[in-house]
Design brief:
This protein has 3 domains: 254 residues, Up-down Bundle (Rhopdopsin 7-helix transmembrane proteins); 151 residues, Reverse transcriptase/Diguanylate cyclase domain (Alpha-Beta Plaits, 2-Layer Sandwich), CATH 3.30.70.270; 259 residues, EAL domain (TIM Barrel, Alpha-Beta Barrel). 57% of the residues lie in helices and 14% in strands. The strands form 5 sheets. Strands 12-13-14-15-16-17-18-19 form an 8-stranded mixed beta barrel, surrounded by 5 helices. A 5-stranded mixed β-sheet has the order 6-7-5-10-11, sandwiched between helices. The termini are far apart. Bound molecules: ligand C2E and magnesium ion (2 copies). One magnesium ion binds next to loops.
């Protein structure tokens, strides 16, 4: 008897079972085979529902936010859906083959075969697209290649849909038994195309995904391949879909779990999703622009109101960003810090940044009050500015601590963005120059309006070595702070100041004291006072000749250890100045609590008020308040005669600024004093 005959005979007896491809299923494997398909169905359905119901929750954005979900997530759902449908169709198909019957049954048998192929082909495509997403492969770069990528799928589906007339893929004979058509191998080949492509993309772009994730994808490919091979060898064991469902479960647990993460507070995609997407874009060399945005003054907001108000503001801001980012995707990176990723480098990121900054011209409604807030934004382009993720991380680390000496909202200048990106290179260079002591201290005259002469100077750090010559200390001081190098730098500056004060030549000038800058990071070091004292005693300098300038950065004066150190300095006889007064951090209460000899009004205040109508009154009332506290006023940043007159009439005590002189070398400073002395004498 022919095999065919055997089949028909067995089939008509109703005892044997056949798989969807019409192959005879051995009795003892029948339940076994179907069980795999049923398991595949249940497993993929479970994963599908879990993703949709449990994990989708993470994607439900706050009201008004249109959140873009990663393509990857949809492709994953598509894969699960294809497995679920293919397996249930297959189970139904196998069930139908056990029945004998009329034309209607033949129709349904045909129908389920076709349905199976439709979804099984979709599964291959979804797999290919999923790997494309995960590895960040940019298939859209080339329009023709992009269309070619979908061509095998289109051909395969067209073949199945037209099979009814052509019988090229498969057909049912008069006994309603399934037969493969001439083009069946092509159909398998077209589906295999995506598996092969996925594999190629995976190998090529493996570095775009983290180690754990690449292991997960690797395991996924291996399990699915084993399933396909087993089924090819033993067509009675319908294990392929089950293996694929199992592989999806692995992916769901490892990759999808993380990729779906969304910042719970703002509803935006989180930092993890950001790094994942950026790494992929870097790996695929797709150009992009990041608009980094940081809301300023969050800590003051918390102090003024409470944590909840800060959250309220951040949620509103996040919503605003999400609604206005156009083609960009907004991510919540750190509290108060957002990144908007644009996959193009056209005009829109720049326009978006300006729009965000101008939004801060008007206040934000927090609870029942309108609060003025400020923001800073920076544009980072790839590949122009950054080439790898490390550079971006360096930038983000510096960006968090970056502040321009300016009130209000601003766009960070490109020059500063570039410096922040190179901050690690700066760190290395800084380490070298500090070790080699290639540091210098310049002195900027401080003029007394009462005595009509220079009575003091501010000591300012200079590094006359590339690349520091070209940038302001405002940029490398934060790097020195972050790396701890500031401590040694501070000791160097302190020693130079002592040397200067101890020099006979200085003693012959009217200089009574020198001001030097101390950063909070120096105060946090318990040795500070002792180390300073050792140096001071060595040079025999009177503590009263040294004035320490402190900046009220980020609530520094709230820290007990900082206050304790300040107290010790005062007890010894040092005097203190509050630097950069008015830059958004200063707090009147603290100003009163720490006995400041001088309050240095920040240059930006003068520059802003000088232009405004009524600016004079504001400066006057600020001055009288400071005087009431018993402090003297030093006005920084006086550049013009006009500013000089304004400051004088407002009651300032001292003036520091380019109007008199820029910071000078020690020699330059002596010459300056000589010249000044000569003018006073000749007057
Ligand atoms: P700061 O303490 O507020 O110093 C005043 C800054 O304003 C100096 O900038 C000075 O050159 C500049 N300046 C003064 N008058 C004018 C003016 O009329 N016009 C303009 N455009 N600028 C004026 P510099 O030297 O670049 O220092 C920047 C900041 O770096 C300082 O701000 C200070 O915070 C920090 N810094 C400098 N040296 C040291 C140091 O030795 N230790 C620490 N911890 N910080 C330092
Ligand atoms: Mg200063
Ligand atoms: Mg200052």
């Amino acid at each position: 008897m022919t095999i065919f005959g055997k089949l028909t005979q067995k089939r008509s007896s109703g005892m044997s079972r056949f798989d969807i491809n019409g192959n005879l299923l051995r009795e003892h494997t029948y339940m076994y085979a179907i069980s795999f398909e049923i398991a595949a169905f249940l497993l993929s359905l479970f994963c599908f529902l879990y993703c949709l119901i449990a994990k989708r929750k993470q994607y439900i954005p706050p009201k008004g936010v249109s959140n873009r979900v990663n393509d990857q997530h949809f492709q994953f759902l598509m894969m699960l859906l294809s497995i679920a449908v293919s397996s249930i169709v297959s189970v139904t198909g196998v069930f139908l083959t056990t029945l004998t019957g009329d034309a209607v049954l033949t129709f349904w048998k045909y129908f389920f075969h076709a349905l199976y192929f439709i979804f099984h082909t979709t599964l291959s495509l979804a797999f290919g697209l999923y790997i494309v997403s995960v590895t960040g492969t940019d298939i859209k770069k080339n329009k023709i290649l992009y269309l070619l990528f979908f061509l095998p799928y289109t051909i395969a589906e067209a073949l199945i849909l037209t099979n009814q007339w052509t019988n090229w893929c498969f057909f049912m004979d008069e006994n309603s038994i399934y037969h493969r058509g001439v083009l069946m191998p092509l159909l398998y080949g077209l589906a295999a195309f995506y598996i092969v492509m996925g594999f190629i993309f995976f190998i090529r772009n493996m570095k775009a995904i983290t180690r754990d994730d690449s292991i997960a994808v690797g395991v996924f490919i291996i399990i699915a391949t084993i399933g396909i091979i087993v089924q090819a060898v033993r067509s009675d064991i319908l294990v392929e879909l089950f293996a694929e469902a199992l592989a999806c479960l692995v992916i769901m647990m490892v990759l999808e779990e993380k990729a779906g993460h969304v910042d719970q507070m703002t509803g935006l995609l989180n930092r993890f999703a950001f790094s994942e997407n950026v790494r992929r874009m870097l790996a695929s060399k797709s150009p992009f622009t990041i608009v980094a945005i940081q809301a300023l003054g969050i800590s003051s907001l918390i102090k003024r109101f409470n944590e909840r108000s800060a959250d309220q503001f951040l949620l509103q801001f996040a919503t605003y960003l999400s609604l206005n980012s156009g083609e960009g995707t907004a991510y919540s990176y750190r509290r108060g810090e957002f990144l908007v990723l644009f996959k193009n480098d056209g005009k829109s990121p720049t326009d978006f940044a300006s729009k965000v900054i101008s939004r801060f011209d008007s206040p934000w409604r927090i609870g029942r009050v309108d609060v003025s807030m400020s923001v800073m934004a920076a544009l980072v382009h790839s590949p122009e500015d950054i080439r790898d993720y490390d550079e971006l991380e360096d930038f983000l680390a510096s960006f968090a601590g970056y502040r321009k000496n300016q009130e209000g909202s601003y766009l960070v200048p490109d020059k500063d963005v570039k410096t922040m990106i190179q901050s690690r290179a700066y760190e290395d260079e800084l380490q070298k120059v500090v070790k080699k002591k290639q540091l210098e201290v310049y002195f900027q005259p401080i003029y007394s309006l009462n005595e009509h002469r220079t009575v003091s100077a501010e000591a300012l750090l200079r590094i006359n070595v590339h690349p520091f010559t070209e940038v302001s200390p405002e940029l490398y001081i934060p790097i020195a702070e972050r790396t701890g190098l500031i401590y040694d730098i501070g000791l160097f500056v302190f020693e130079e100041v002592c040397k200067f004060l101890a020099a006979e030549r200085t003693k012959a000038t009217p200089i009574r004291y020198v001001e030097l800058n101390l950063s909070v990071y120096q105060f946090l070091e318990p040795r500070l006072v002792d180390d300073f004292e050792k140096i001071r005693r060595r040079y025999g300098i009177d503590a009263g000749a040294i004035n320490l300038e402190i900046t009220e950065t980020g609530g520094a004066l709230d820290k007990n250890e900082v206050l304790a150190t300040l107290k010790r300095f005062i007890e010894i006889g040092y005097t203190l100045s509050l630097d950069d007064f008015g830059t958004g951090y200063s707090n009147f209460v603290r100003m009163v609590r720490c006995q400041f000899e001088n309050i240095k009004i920040d240059k930006s205040i003068l520059w802003d008020l000088g232009e405004e109508k009524g600016g004079k009154q504001t400066l006057q009332s600020l001055a009288s308040f400071i005087k009431l506290q018993g402090s003297r006023i030093v006005q920084e940043g006086v550049e013009t005669k006009q500013q000089y007159d304004l400051v004088e009439s407002c009651g300032a005590d001292y003036i520091q600024g380019f109007y008199f002189s820029k910071p000078l070398t020690k020699e330059g400073f002596y010459d300056y004093l000589d010249r000044e002395g000569a003018t006073i004498h000749s007057a």
